Amino acid sequence: MHNIELLSPAKDLECGLAAINHGADAVYIGASQFGARAAAGNSVEDIQQLVKYAHSFRAKVFVALNTVLTDEQLPEVEQLIHQVYEAGADALIVQDMGILQLDIPPISLHASTQTDNRTAEKVKFLQDVGFSRVVMARELNLSQIADIRSKTEVELEAFVHGALCVSYSGQCYMSQANCGRSANRGQCAQYCRLPYQLVDADGNVLAKNKHLLSLKDLDLSDSLREMMDAGVMSFKIEGRLKSVEYVKNITAYYRQKLDAILEGTPQYQPASLGKTTFFFEPNPEKSFRRSSTEYFLHERKADIVQPDTPKSLGEPMGKVTYIGRNFFEMQNGHLVHNGDGLCFLNRQNDLTGFRVNRVEIPTHRSDGKGVKCFPADMPRMDVGVFLYRNQDQEFEKILKGKTSERRVGVNVLFAETKDGFDIQFTDEQGISATYSVSHEKQLAQKPEAVESNIQNQLSKLGNTIYELLHIEVQIKSPWFFPASLLSEWRRMAVEMLDAAREKAYTKETRRPSTTATFPAEKISYLGNVTNALATQFYQEHGVAEVLPGFEVKAEAGVPLMYCKHCIKFSMGWCPKSGYKATFSEPLYLRNNDQTYQLTFDCKACEMHIVKA
Question: pTM of whole model > 0.85?
Answer without folding.
Answer: yes
